[in-house]
Amino acid sequence: MSKGRVAAWTTVALLLAGGITAAFIYLPRWYADTDQAVEVESPAAPATPKIKARLFYLSDDGLRLVEVEREVPVGQGTVQQARRLVEAQLEPVAAPRLSAIPDGTKLRALYVDAQGQAFVDLSREVATAHSGGVLEEILTVYSVVNAITANLPAVRAVQILVDGHEVDTLAGHVDLRRPLTRGAAWVQESGPLSPVSGGVPSVPEKQ
After folding, report:
1. d(C-alpha 155, C-alpha 183), whole Å
2. 7 lies in some domain
3. What is the total count of domains within the chain?
4. Is the peptide bond preceding residue 96 cis, with omega within 30 degrees of 0?
5. pLDDT (tens digit, 9 = 90+) per residue, 121-174?
6. Do the domain assignments include residue 158?
7. Quick one: which of 10, 41, 85, 117 has the most CB atoms within 10 Å?
8. Is residue 145 part of a domain?
């Protein structure tokens, strides 16, 4: 083989070797840069379905509850929907509304029996952080009772438990030893508040 051919083949071999080396060095970097440049958008989470519910907050003068329409997440079945309603009722409310339930109160458990009676187990703050007073206690109790009974026809009465136990009262006044039905008398009607004839409506008292 002539020296010219040997030189030519040597040149070709060197070029091939250089090309292969460059491929090993630069191709991974190119693919890495390409991977980093591609952004894949994750699918948006489906919106949580909601229903319009009636919740209850203090009236401007603090003497009644006012009915407010709010959106509440949908629950599957009566028990879960009752939980969603109570959780919404316990949430802080935007001004100018005020909650009748002490800050920090949480829902611990909830169940409904075959007779349509709901048992709502609230954390101890509902009692320990309560301001006291007959009217204040009445409005606290019925904001919870009404939140369930006004929205769920399947539930006719509600008994409030505290920290997993039955209690006589929250602050010494309203009898909680049995389920209570909806307290419509404590809800302010639309329009100006009218005086209640014959004194305040009756409420179960501790015997």
Report:
1. 14
2. no
3. 1
4. yes
5. 999 999 999 999 999 999 999 999 999 999 999 999 999 999 999 999 999 999
6. yes
7. 85
8. yes
